[in-house]
Amino acid sequence: MFIAILFGLHSIFSYIPLIIIILPIFIYLKIWKVLLEDMKEFFSSIKSIRFNKIEIFCIFLLIIEFIYLFLYWLIYPIYLWDAMVIWDARAKFIYYDGNFDYLNSFERIYEFHHSYPLLVPLNLVFFYSIMFQYHYFAKILFASYFIFLITFIFHTLRSFNLSRTYSMLISTMVALLGNLFFHATIAYADLTITFFYTISTILLFCYIYYEKQHFLLYSSIFMGFTAWSKIEGIALFGINVIILIIYQVYKYFRKEIAVSTSLKRLSIYLLITITIYLPWQIFLIVNNIPSEFITELAILFDFETSFSDLSVILDYILTVQFFDFLSWGSIYWLVFYIILILNFRTLLNEKIIFLFLFLVGHFILYIIIYIITPLELEWHLAQSIDRELLHLAPLSGFLIGAIISEKMRKQPKDFKDTLPNNFLLFN
User: Fold this and answer.
1) What is the pLDDT of residues 215-260, one digit of tens each?
2) Domain ranges in the chain?
3) Cα–Cα distance, 219 to 201 (Å, whole number)
4) b/e for 336-350, b at 16 or more Cβ within 10 A?
5) DSSP state of 65
6) Residue 157 and residue 139 in contact, taking contact as beta carbons nearer than 8 Å
7) pTM of the full predicted structure?
8) What share of the chain is helix, strand, coil (3-state, %, to 5)?
C-alpha cells in the first residue's frame, strides 16, 4: 500500500495491487484448499476432544474475554490521545487525501513521533477502504492481532510437545494480562509491534532449536513488519541480529556449521528484513525527517548522566511496575521470575538460553531508549513503561512454556505430569 500511494495511486485503492499479487499465489499454491481441509479436520476433531477441568476453566475465561473484546469493538469509538492524534489522525489524512501530503501541515505542527512508521495507519486505511467509509469498526484490526497472537503462542507451544493443558494455561495467563487486553481495544501501535516482534522472535528461536532454515525466512518477514510498526522495531531487529550472530559463532566454535553457511543464513535474515523496511527509511531521508532518539545517542557517553538515569529507571520499574501486587501484571512478572529462579539449570540449556537472551537484550534496549530520551525522564517512564513491558510479556510466557517442555523431555517415563513438579521443582 505504501509503495502504491507513493506511485500516485489513491489510498482508497492502494490495497488492490497487493491483492493482485497475492491472489494468484493463493490460488496456484492451493492455499485455500489446505485451509478448508484444516478447518474441516479441526471441527471434526474438536467433537472428540475431552477437556480436563483446567482446560475448561481456561476456555471459559478466554470466551468471556473474547465476548467482552468484540462488544467493546462494536460499541466504543477510537479514543485516547495517541490513538486519535497520532495513529488514527494519520489514517484519516491518508484515507481522505489519498497521499502523504499531511506531512507538510499537521505532522509538522505535531512534531513528536513524526518518524514513526505507518503500518498501523495504513492498516486502518485498508479497513476504511473496504468499508467505503471512515468507521471505528476498523478497530477489529487490534482485536485480530490479539486473538492471532494468543493462538500462535498456544500452537507453537504444542509444537514443542508441551501438553495441551500447559499450553492452554500459559496462553490464558498471557491473554489475561490487563495491559495486553487493553491494547486490543484501542488503536495504539504497541499491540501491533508486540504481535510481529513476538512471532518473529519465536520463529527465530525455532530456527535455533530445530535448525530448519525456513524458520529463519519466516522470522525475517515478521521482523520486517516489526520495524514498520514503531520506531523501536528497527532497534529490536538489531538486538535479534546480535543474538543470531552469537549463536552462529557458538555453532562455529563447536564445529557444527561452516563460516560460508553461517554467513549465507545471516545474509538471508538481514536482506529480507532490510528490504521490507528500506522503503520507509528512504522516505524519511527524502522528506528530511530525523529520528528524535538517534540524535540523542551521545548521552550514553556521558556516564554520570547515564548512571543517574539508570538508577531512576530501575527504581521506577521495580517499585511501580513489578511490585504493585494489586495488579495482575505484577503477579504475572513475579511468577515469571520465580519460575526462572527455580529452573535456573534448564534456563542454561544450550538452546533455551538464547530465548532468554532475546528477552534480556530487549529489556536492555528499552533501558537505553529511556536514557537517551529527549523527553523528561520521569514523565516518559510514567507515560510509556507499561507499554514497553507489554512488548516483552508474550515472549516471557513462551519462555515459561519452553522451560517446562525441556524439563518434561528430560524426566523419566514415570514422572508425574503435575503443576508443582513442573513449575516449582529445582533442577
Assistant:
1) 999 999 999 999 999 888 999 999 999 999 999 999 988 888 888 8
2) 57-423
3) 7
4) beebbebbeebbebe
5) H
6) no
7) 0.88
8) 80, 0, 20
